Amino acid sequence: MLTYKLGYPEILKGFPVTPYISRYLPPFDEFEVDHCDLPTGKSTVFPAISGPSVYLVIEGKGKLETGSSQLLVNGGDILFVPAHIEIHVTGESDVMKLYRGGVSSRFFQTL
């Protein structure tokens, strides 16, 4: 059953996970969102998590690497990443903006 709450939605404030990644945790356990702004030549790591993720490249271009493969990505690309895969990202444009949506880490803490 759906429940409704009248009023404006809460605007979430993310918290830093790394110098380039902020995490947004909605008030439910189904998913979480990471936002990454990566300058040219800088790198960051999205650690492996227990569930699958979808990566959305919003702007710019860069390189995504796992232990076994490398992929060049551009704004507009969408990628599915299975569970337990660490992703290394390197920006190759002025700013590379991307989001990762995945199962909330809170969900796995309750199992």
Automatic annotation (TrEMBL):
It holds the Pfam family PMI_typeI_C. Coiled coil: none annotated. GO terms for molecular function: mannose-6-phosphate isomerase activity. InterPro entries: Mannose-6-P_Isomerase, PMI_typeI_C, RmlC-like_jellyroll, RmlC_Cupin_sf. Transmembrane segments: none annotated. One of its GO terms (cellular component) is cytosol. Residues 24-68 form the Phosphomannose isomerase type I C-terminal domain. One of its GO terms (biological process) is GDP-mannose biosynthetic process. It comes from the Eukaryota. This is Phosphomannose isomerase type I C-terminal domain-containing protein.
